[in-house]
Write a structure and sequence with these properties.
The structure holds 2 protein chains of 2 kinds. By secondary structure, chain A is of the alpha/beta class. Chain A has 2 domains: about 1-215, P-loop containing nucleotide triphosphate hydrolases (Rossmann fold, 3-Layer(aba) Sandwich); about 220-280, 2-Layer Sandwich (Alpha-Beta Plaits), CATH 3.30.70. Helix content of chain A is about 35%, strand content about 25%. In chain A, the strands form 3 sheets. Chain A has a 6-stranded mixed sheet, with helices on both faces. Chain A has a 4-stranded antiparallel sheet with strand order 11-12-10-13, with helices on one face. Chain B is an all-alpha fold. Chain B has one domain. In chain B, α4 runs antiparallel to α8 and α7 crosses α8 (about 160-180). The relative contact order of chain B is 0.13. The chains are: A alpha/beta, B mainly alpha. The interface of A and B includes residues 48, 66, 67, 85 and 101 of A.
Chain lengths: ~300, ~240
């Protein structure tokens, strides 16, 4: 379990993380969502004891990272795939990490095979593509067979094949009962991978809970209604206090659930052709919640981004 | 600590830079001894003549030691390092130790290699290593190299950038220490306490007016390195990686 309480980090006058408290529960994949610059990486660096919090604190199973004995056996992390000496081979990179944690040399070959880098193990890491670097980073994270794993934007910049591979890998790690904390600004990615979500914007906690809760909490659910007597139905709905908007040959009803609409239609003897609840997407929920906490944007770009996400 | 020493040893020797540095340092030092041996005239060749080149070897080793830590910052492997071993003091002490040991080995091979080379070219009974001063001049090179490596790792840790660290490490002994003499009045006194000036008194013997004898000079030089290292460790512990 990872537990952050009142975590705060200032860089000069910039507040990167602002009084952030959350928990990452054991044996689940928890998504760490936020727009670029929200403080996700900074938070992850503080979890790993690389950056010192200005105030507050974060613990792994009740311990500070700095106090863990041979931490790679407890926490594996991939924060940046480029944290590798370009003139050192993949195998040598893992060898020194293994030596630091007193892991046998055979473990290096195991993880290299696990991520499919066995064939290029003696090539210099500087010549690796992003996808290969990412695999090497994951091999390093898995080296100590840790029960807690941290990944910062693992699919960023990968081709579809690489993304699929990482996604499958996350599922596999979760199925093995490991705690996975993975950050992303790609919501669709999180919807497919995570069970729980920690959402931040401008360093502040926006939401913590399950993915379903997040969507329910953040999106206004509407019901799409089709009927040959749309106008009549609309009047009755308005009379009953619901909000309606015209959606071509259908009505989008808000503030009333599908059961109530169906009963109303039956009572007024109006034929319905369609009555379908519309669940908001993760993207919509995300933009709605983080809309005013995106650090870098122009009003127009944000609007366009919103439209693209909905499309 | 043995685990950390092993880790840092793997790290150091799995890149090419220390190998190149070692060959370059030995080549320069021994090559210079050969040149001195070949071009010597007027009187027999002495032990000190064979050691002229060690100054160049020292510069190369100094650069190598600084790079051992600055490249970690350059490629952010220092983060991977602190992730694997969060006890920063232990990691950096281990790294310093490994680099210093390598520097000592290079220094000894360079010094004795130079002596042998010069001896083989034009040696006579005057070149025998007999007195304490002779031994200091040759065997002492490894010690000076090791302490210099500690200074270089400390400076590299403080500066974090290869170019900056190397500039300081080259300009300081080659220029700054000699230029302070030009300061009116106190210049010569300050010069007497400059670390690399003092270190050369350990190797080449102290003139009677020098503030310290040879072994006290080495102790002083080591003290300077220790102070820099402690400062570097304090900063590295406080700073975000």
């Amino acid at each position: 379990m990872i537990e952050a309480t009142g975590l705060t980090k200032h860089y000069g006058r910039t507040v990167a993380v602002d009084n952030l408290s959350f928990t990452v529960s054991e044996g689940k994949v928890t998504g760490f969502l936020g727009p670029n610059g929200a403080g996700k990486s900074t938070t992850m660096r503080m979890i790993l004891g690389l950056d010192r919090p200005t105030s507050g604190d974060v613990r792994i199973d009740g311990q500070h990272y700095r106090d863990l004995h041979q931490p790679l056996r407890t926490v594996g992390a991939l924060l940046d795939a480029k944290w590798v000496h370009p003139n050192r081979s993949a195998r040598a990179h893992l060898r020194w990490l293994a030596a630091a944690s007193k892991l046998p040399r055979s473990r290096v070959d195991e993880v290299l095979d696990l991520v499919g880098l066995g064939g290029v193990a003696d090539k210099n890491a500087g010549g690796f593509s992003l996808g290969m670097s990412q695999r090497l980073g994951i091999a390093a994270a898995l080296l100590g067979d840790p029960k807690v794993l941290l990944f910062d934007e693992p699919v960023n910049g990968l081709d579809p094949e690489g993304i699929l591979w990482i996604r499958k890998f996350m599922h596999r790690l979760a199925a093995e009962g490991r705690t996975v904390f993975v950050s992303s600004h790609l919501l669709s990615e999180m919807a497919q991978t995570a069970q729980d979500l920690v959402v931040i914007g401008r360093g502040k906690l926006i939401h913590q809970g399950t993915v379903d809760e997040f969507i329910a909490h953040a999106t206004e659910s509407t019901v799409l209604v089709r009927s040959p007597e749309l106008e009549k139905l609309g009047e009755h709905l308005l009379g009953a206090g619901a909000g309606i908007s015209d959606d071509g040959d259908a009505l989008r009803v808000s503030g009333m659930d599908s059961a109530a609409i169906g009963e109303l239609a039956a009572a007024k003897q109006i034929t319905l052709h369609e009555l379908s609840p519309q669940v908001g997407s993760l993207e919509q929920a995300f933009i709605q919640l983080t809309g005013d906490s995106v650090e870098y944007r122009t009003a127009e770009a944000a609007q366009r981004a919103g439209q693209e996400e909905r499309a | 600590m043995t685990t950390l020493l092993a880790t840092e040893r793997i790290k150091l020797f799995t890149t090419r830079s220390p190998w190149w540095s070692a060959f370059l340092a030995l080549g320069l030092t021994i090559g210079f001894a050969a040149l001195v041996g070949l071009n010597h005239s007027g009187g027999p060749l002495l032990v000190e003549h064979s050691q002229f080149g060690t100054q160049f070897g020292l510069m190369v080793v100094s650069v190598m030691a600084a790079l051992a830590i600055t490249t970690e910052y350059r490629f952010a492997t220092i983060r991977a390092t602190f992730q694997a071993v969060p006890k920063r003091t232990s990691v950096l002490v281990a790294k310093t130790a490994v680099v210093a040991i390598l520097a000592a080995v290079i220094g000894e091979v360079a010094a004795f290699g130079s002596w042998l080379t010069a001896y083989a070219i034009d040696g006579g009974p005057e070149m025998a290593i007999t007195t304490g001063a002779d031994w200091r001049m040759v065997a002492g090179v490894g010690l000076v190299f090791a302490v210099t490596a500690v200074i270089a790792v400390a400076v590299g840790t403080l500066v974090r950038q290869s170019a900056g660290a190397i500039s300081i490490l080259l300009i300081w002994p080659l220029l700054v220490e000699n230029l302070v003499v030009l300061i009116p009045g106190v210049g010569a006194n300050i010069h007497d306490w400059m670390p690399f000036t003092v270190a050369s008194r350990f190797l080449n013997g102290a003139e009677p007016i020098a503030p310290m004898g040879p072994w006290a000079s080495l102790a002083y030089f080591t003290g300077v390195a220790a102070v820099l290292l402690v400062a570097a460790l304090a900063v590295a512990n406080k700073r975000d990686a």
